[in-house]
């Protein structure tokens, strides 16, 4: 049973009051709140066996190592990978894209070839590709958007050719909320050029949808723990075994080696080859606990709650005069995010007025400047929803926006 009120009891921050008023947290797209189960899992590591992994033969270190590797299996299972060696722990989604761009790009991309991304990407899935293309003198092309913020897929055959080495695209837009039909897109790309690799930015998908890497057909998938109830500082690069196996290390040093001599080094196998130095052990265990929590709720229930709350929010916000809501009309076609603008009010001013009632939304470009340029707007407001949000909170948001309209657009 999916019981929002019960779920809310698990989140210590939700039950805190600021200046005597309850918190209305509508910024989970930036970072979700953490349930006490996750916080306890991190604490437990420090309290019960907080030592380094791999290095010790003593039992505390062996326990820490076992838990760390168990976490890898749990994460692999959650995204439908049957081989946990395909799960590389990183700091976040950004580092995961950088790892792929740097390691794969430096070793495989050549002058005159091209990569393709989309105009709706988060900067994390644009800038690393810009850098590697600049370095390799390769071209970076972009899939445009049409209508309400869907990718312009009619254009795919013009953009992808025999020199397209990789397509980097998002599963769910962190601004428009658009859920891209990634399985079809991947099939289409592979039918045009079967050797083109696909990197899927699933930072806004894994926390909200059942993601199955075996089913999707991508070569890389990246996501961050902190958007899915886990601590900050832990993320994932999932890659197909053969693809990862053929990539050189990203960073070098301890842990990622098998043998070191003064004149050369033999690297460890995957995934360790990509995990140089002491990892975020506590964060990894927190991520495993977050996965347990989400699995306990059931990802179908997580998604259904999101559709219900986004549908309600689209209706309530849609009633407000002079509001423009970006992205697909139907809740089913979008993730848990609604970006909007209110005529005559700067997004930062609106966010600040909402903050006086402890309503937390984002304002700005949400690390998607090219998308805002494409939409011809300097900035937008963004409210986002997760497992703990209620209709009552949506009502408070709608009332807060109307209050801001009264304050900021009254003419004297
Ligand atoms: C779609 C998308 N990709 C990538 C990122 C980057 O995530 P992180 O900052 O955790 O690396 C974000 C963060 O907002 C995002 O929404």
Automatic annotation (TrEMBL):
Its EC number is 2.8.1.7. Coiled coil: none annotated. Its cofactor is pyridoxal 5'-phosphate. One of its GO terms (molecular function) is cysteine desulfurase activity. It holds the Pfam family Aminotran_5. It is an enzyme of class 2 (transferase). It comes from the Bacteria. It catalyses: (sulfur carrier)-H + L-cysteine = (sulfur carrier)-SH + L-alanine. Keywords: Pyridoxal phosphate, Transferase. GO terms for biological process: cysteine metabolic process. Gene3D superfamilies: Aspartate Aminotransferase, domain 1 (3.90.1150.10), Type I PLP-dependent aspartate aminotransferase-like (Major domain) (3.40.640.10). SUPFAM superfamilies: PLP-dependent transferases (SSF53383). CDD domains: SufS_like. Residues 24-397 form the Aminotransferase class V domain. NCBIfam families: sufS. Belongs to the class-V pyridoxal-phosphate-dependent aminotransferase family. Csd subfamily. This is cysteine desulfurase. It comes from Candidatus Gottesmanbacteria bacterium RIFCSPHIGHO2_02_FULL_39_14.
């Amino acid at each position: 049973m999916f019981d929002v009120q019960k779920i809310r009891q698990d989140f210590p921050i939700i039950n805190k009051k600021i200046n005597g008023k309850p918190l209305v947290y509508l910024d989970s797209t930036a970072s979700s709140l953490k349930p006490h189960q996750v916080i306890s899992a991190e604490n437990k590591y420090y309290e019960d066996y907080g030592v380094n992994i791999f290095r010790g033969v003593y039992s505390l270190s062996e326990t820490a190592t076992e838990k760390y590797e168990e976490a890898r299996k749990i994460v692999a299972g959650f995204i439908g990978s049957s081989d946990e060696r395909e799960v590389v722990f990183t700091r976040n989604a950004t580092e995961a894209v950088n790892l792929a761009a740097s390691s794969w790009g430096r070793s495989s991309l050549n002058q005159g070839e091209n990569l393709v991304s989309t105009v709706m990407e988060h900067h994390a899935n644009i800038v690393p590709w810009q850098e590697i293309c600049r370095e390799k003198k390769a071209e970076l092309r972009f899939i445009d958007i049409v209508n309400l913020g869907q990718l312009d897929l009619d254009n795919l055959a013009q953009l992808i050719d025999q020199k397209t080495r990789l397509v980097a695209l998002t599963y769910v837009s962190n601004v428009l909320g658009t859920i891209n039909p990634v399985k079809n897109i991947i099939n289409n790309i592979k039918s045009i050029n079967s050797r083109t690799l696909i990197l899927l930015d699933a930072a806004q998908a894994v926390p909200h949808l059942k993601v199955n890497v075996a089913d999707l057909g991508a070569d890389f998938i990246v996501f961050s723990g902190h958007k899915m109830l886990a601590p900050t500082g832990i993320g994932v690069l999932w890659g197909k075994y053969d693809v990862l196996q053929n990539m050189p290390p990203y960073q070098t040093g301890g842990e990622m080696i098998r043998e070191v001599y003064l004149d050369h080094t033999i690297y460890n196998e995957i995934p360790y080859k990509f995990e140089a130095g002491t990892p975020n052990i506590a964060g990894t265990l927190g991520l495993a606990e977050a996965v347990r929590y989400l699995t306990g709720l059931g990802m179908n229930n997580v998604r259904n709650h999101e559709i219900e709350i986004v549908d309600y929010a689209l209706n309530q916000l849609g009633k407000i005069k002079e509001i423009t809501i970006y992205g697909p009309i139907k809740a089913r076609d979008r993730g848990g995010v609604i970006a909007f603008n209110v005529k005559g009010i700067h997004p930062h001013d609106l966010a600040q007025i909402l903050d006086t009632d402890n309503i937390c939304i984002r304002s700005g470009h949400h690390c998607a400047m090219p998308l805002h340029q494409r939409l011809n707007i300097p900035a937008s407001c963004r409210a986002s929803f997760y497992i703990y949000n209620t209709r009552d909170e949506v009502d408070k948001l709608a009332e807060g926006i109307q209050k801001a309209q009264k304050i900021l657009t009254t003419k004297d």
